[in-house]
Amino acid sequence: MSSVLNPAHLRLGVNIDHVATIRNARGGLHPDPARAAQIVAQAGGDGITVHLREDRRHIVDGDIQRVQDATGLPVNLEMAATQEMLEIALRHRPHAACIVPERREERTTEGGLDAAGLHNQLAPIVGRLTEAGVRVSLFIGPEPHQIAAAMKLGAPVVELHTGEYAHATGPDVATELRRIADMAALAAKNGIEPHAGHGLTYENVQPIAAIPQIAELNIGHYLIGEAIFTGLEASIAKMRALMDEVR
Ligand SMILES: CC(=O)[C@@H](O)[C@H](O)COP(=O)(O)O
Ligand SMILES: NCC(=O)COP(=O)(O)O
């Protein structure tokens, strides 16, 4: 059976950006994101995610190759839809590239990509990456018109932004969860592999992990934060166990 319809194993991509945030606080080499990637592999992570931001606030250009060389795990490069990032992605040819919206002044990626409104800007980027053998993903909000736009662009993957779910309280939690579940089902029905991520924690991961069509979660900030207290291997193992409990 296709992995879109029944992903046997919910993959965990670990975003190691914030290892670089700590490194950059002192401008040296420690802690090294490449070493973090090796620990992700030891801990049973299925992939490494890095977001090369235009302002290089965490991962920097030289990290990409070092992270790619550190393990045999697939690397998912998150990138803005710019010529500069396209050239970098084509040079490194990661397993996957997830196109994300970026605003320099934002604290984090606050919403999804407007794949519908940016069709003309995204189409050549999706095309060039696809030709280069890179699996393209679009980081979108859980909205039907964004799934339709991803279909029109021929993206094989969408990553549903879980930030609004993660920040919701009271009855809004169920509403946000339903939006994500419905859009995961819609994506899968249309042959697009749904992933999810942003703001996921030990407390909120299980309802998302239980959505049967979702094939991969990308989790970063919380895992790196927990690693300060328990170690990176232990924080990943605990997240993995929580995901496995519901699949
Ligand atoms: C797109 C996304 O969600 C990630 O890139 C992740 O959150 C990285 O951290 P910052 O958003 O804090 O840069
Ligand atoms: N695409 C989401 C991601 O990579 C991790 O987001 P977060 O867990 O750092 O919020």
Automatic annotation (TrEMBL):
<keyword id="KW-0664">Pyridoxine biosynthesis</keyword>
<comment type="function">
    <text>Catalyzes the complicated ring closure reaction between the two acyclic compounds 1-deoxy-D-xylulose-5-phosphate (DXP) and 3-amino-2-oxopropyl phosphate (1-amino-acetone-3-phosphate or AAP) to form pyridoxine 5'-phosphate (PNP) and inorganic phosphate.</text>
</comment>
<feature type="active site" description="Proton donor">
    <location>
        <position position="198"/>
    </location>
</feature>
<dbReference type="GO" id="GO:0033856">
    <property type="term" value="F:pyridoxine 5'-phosphate synthase activity"/>
</dbReference>
<feature type="binding site">
    <location>
        <position position="108"/>
    </location>
    <ligand>
        <name>1-deoxy-D-xylulose 5-phosphate</name>
    </ligand>
</feature>
<feature type="binding site">
    <location>
        <begin position="220"/>
        <end position="221"/>
    </location>
    <ligand>
        <name>3-amino-2-oxopropyl phosphate</name>
    </ligand>
</feature>
<keyword id="KW-0808">Transferase</keyword>
<feature type="binding site">
    <location>
        <position position="53"/>
    </location>
    <ligand>
        <name>1-deoxy-D-xylulose 5-phosphate</name>
    </ligand>
</feature>
<comment type="similarity">
    <text>Belongs to the PNP synthase family.</text>
</comment>
<dbReference type="InterPro" id="IPR004569">
    <property type="entry name" value="PyrdxlP_synth_PdxJ"/>
</dbReference>
<feature type="active site" description="Proton acceptor">
    <location>
        <position position="51"/>
    </location>
</feature>
<feature type="active site" description="Proton acceptor">
    <location>
        <position position="78"/>
    </location>
</feature>
<feature type="site" description="Transition state stabilizer">
    <location>
        <position position="159"/>
    </location>
</feature>
<feature type="binding site">
    <location>
        <begin position="17"/>
        <end position="18"/>
    </location>
    <ligand>
        <name>1-deoxy-D-xylulose 5-phosphate</name>
    </ligand>
</feature>
<feature type="binding site">
    <location>
        <position position="58"/>
    </location>
    <ligand>
        <name>1-deoxy-D-xylulose 5-phosphate</name>
    </ligand>
</feature>
<keyword id="KW-0963">Cytoplasm</keyword>
<dbReference type="InterPro" id="IPR013785">
    <property type="entry name" value="Aldolase_TIM"/>
</dbReference>
<comment type="pathway">
    <text>Cofactor biosynthesis; pyridoxine 5'-phosphate biosynthesis; pyridoxine 5'-phosphate from D-erythrose 4-phosphate: step 5/5.</text>
</comment>
<feature type="binding site">
    <location>
        <position position="199"/>
    </location>
    <ligand>
        <name>3-amino-2-oxopropyl phosphate</name>
    </ligand>
</feature>
<feature type="binding site">
    <location>
        <position position="15"/>
    </location>
    <ligand>
        <name>3-amino-2-oxopropyl phosphate</name>
    </ligand>
</feature>
<comment type="subunit">
    <text>Homooctamer; tetramer of dimers.</text>
</comment>
<dbReference type="Pfam" id="PF03740">
    <property type="entry name" value="PdxJ"/>
</dbReference>
<protein>
    <recommendedName>
        <fullName>Pyridoxine 5'-phosphate synthase</fullName>
        <ecNumber>2.6.99.2</ecNumber>
    </recommendedName>
</protein>
<feature type="binding site">
    <location>
        <position position="26"/>
    </location>
    <ligand>
        <name>3-amino-2-oxopropyl phosphate</name>
    </ligand>
</feature>
<dbReference type="InterPro" id="IPR036130">
    <property type="entry name" value="Pyridoxine-5'_phos_synth"/>
</dbReference>
